[in-house]
């Protein structure tokens, strides 16, 4: 992002009805030009109307928006694709256990100036983003370390300033800085054992998120449309029938995951990978084993094989040493 662009804001207003196809009169600020921090537009992406309007409220009215849902629903991608259509610069930070307070705030680093080593303070991602018209996304928000979460709490207030103690400097947020987060558990911790490493978030922090949207998996017709858009070779009658069975298989794994029978599930991304691998191996069963089955716990593979038999009416080879054969 250039220095000039960093100090500017949106220079036009766009219609949600025209840009996203929803029956809404909402007008949203946008940029005319793209820069290196604007995500690429995915023409095949399907927007959830309610979640999209929640995200657009964040861009338009500076609301702090959290998107919650099971993994693989496309929470972060949803925010990025909204930003892509607004040409709004966007940066994602994954709050895994390796992200520390110093990564967010900044730290002293040794640099070479005029042939001499000197110590300079290098800003972290938070002060960098705060001073620019950037959408900052915190992924896996409920997995952040406590010291990291208290840093974030300081910027959750819409007009809250950020103090760099090491620099004795107060940073006031750019008028078009925006903040988003994605989470699996809405800050309730790992109650059902599905998301190890997640933390409970204190109520004071959760209360600072103005909008919380839930993103579920797409209806099967829309998911099929995405798969076919990604793999147009399957757009004939036989391919459509195969994709329909693949999505049925994915739906069973999601139900099994939600009920605790499986420790992993097939996201829409997995289904697309499966379809693409079908074009490589010309064998849906082999492609399935290489795409998903081998990721599963060995004890759970018979359950997955049973799901496969229901959807494709054949025994799945590679489970217990059996080869695929027609079901009698």
UniProtKB/TrEMBL annotation:
SUPFAM superfamilies: P-loop containing nucleoside triphosphate hydrolases. GO terms for molecular function: ATP binding; ATP hydrolysis activity; cobaltochelatase activity. Its EC number is 6.6.1.2. Keywords: Ligase. InterPro entries: AAA+_ATPase, ATPase_dyneun-rel_AAA, CbbQ/NirQ/NorQ/GpvN, CobS_N_dom, P-loop_NTPase. It comes from the Bacteria. PANTHER family: MAGNESIUM-CHELATASE SUBUNIT CHLD (PTHR42759:SF1), MOXR FAMILY PROTEIN (PTHR42759). This is Aerobic cobaltochelatase subunit CobS.
């Amino acid at each position: 992002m250039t220095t000039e662009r960093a100090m500017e804001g949106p220079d036009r207003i766009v219609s949600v009805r025209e840009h996203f196809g929803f029956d809404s009169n909402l007008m949203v600020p946008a940029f005319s030009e793209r820069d290196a921090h604007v995500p690429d537009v995915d023409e095949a992406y399907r927007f959830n109307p309610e979640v999209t309007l929640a995200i657009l409220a964040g861009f338009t009215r500076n609301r702090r928006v959290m998107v919650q849902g099971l993994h693989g629903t496309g929470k972060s991608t949803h925010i990025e694709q909204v930003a892509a259509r607004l040409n709004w610069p966007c940066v994602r930070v994954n709050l895994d256990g390796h992200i520390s307070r110093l990564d967010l705030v900044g730290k002293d680093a040794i640099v070479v100036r005029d042939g001499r080593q000197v110590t300079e303070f290098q800003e972290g991602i938070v002060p960098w983003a705060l001073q620019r018209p950037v959408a900052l996304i915190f992924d896996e928000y409920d997995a952040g370390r406590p010291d990291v979460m208290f840093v974030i709490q300081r910027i959750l207030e819409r007009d809250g300033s950020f103090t760099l103690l090491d620099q004795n400097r107060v940073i006031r947020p750019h008028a078009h800085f925006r903040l988003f987060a994605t989470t699996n558990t809405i800050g309730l911790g790992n109650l059902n054992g599905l998301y190890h490493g997640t933390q409970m978030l204190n109520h004071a922090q959760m209360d600072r998120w103005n909008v919380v949207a839930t993103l579920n998996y797409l209806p099967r017709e829309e998911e099929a449309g995405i798969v076919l858009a990604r793999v147009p070779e399957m757009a004939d009658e036989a391919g459509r029938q195969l994709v329909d069975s693949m999505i049925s298989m994915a739906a069973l794994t999601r139900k099994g995951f939600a009920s605790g029978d499986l420790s992993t599930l097939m996201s829409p991304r997995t289904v697309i990978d499966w379809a693409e691998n079908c074009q490589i191996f010309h064998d849906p069963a082999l492609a399935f084993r290489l795409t998903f089955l081998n990721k599963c716990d060995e004890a759970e593979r018979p359950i997955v094989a049973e799901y496969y038999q229901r959807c494709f009416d054949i025994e799945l080879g590679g489970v217990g040493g059996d080869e695929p054969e027609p079901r009698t």
